[in-house]
Specification:
The protein is mainly α and about 90 residues long. The protein is built from four helices and no strands. Keywords: Membrane, Transmembrane, Transmembrane helix.
């Protein structure tokens, strides 16, 4: 099982590098992606630290940061809505 997971990881990495080199995306997309992740983490931290959402706490983990980096500010609202709906 571990060997299969390692093989999938290696194949995925090779294909990702092939796509980047073939499309000639350069390294600009990596900086943009990184800045989105950092800004999402800072935004979530500010929402938690300033208590803008009341007593609700959104943990900083890859799933929440990814959601906010893809959806932007509405992603924070989605996470808060899920928190209220699922965990009351």
């Amino acid at each position: 099982m571990r060997t299969a997971a390692l093989a999938v990881l290696v194949i995925s990495a090779v294909l990702l590098i092939a796509i980047v080199l073939k499309k000639r995306l350069g390294w600009r997309w990596l900086g943009l992606f990184g800045s989105h992740l950092v800004l999402a983490a800072i935004g979530l931290y500010l929402v938690d630290f300033t208590r803008l959402a009341g007593d609700l706490y959104i943990p900083l983990n890859p799933a929440t940061i990814g959601t906010v980096s893809v959806l932007g500010l509405p992603g924070v609202a989605v996470l808060l809505g899920l928190k209220v709906t699922l965990f009351g």
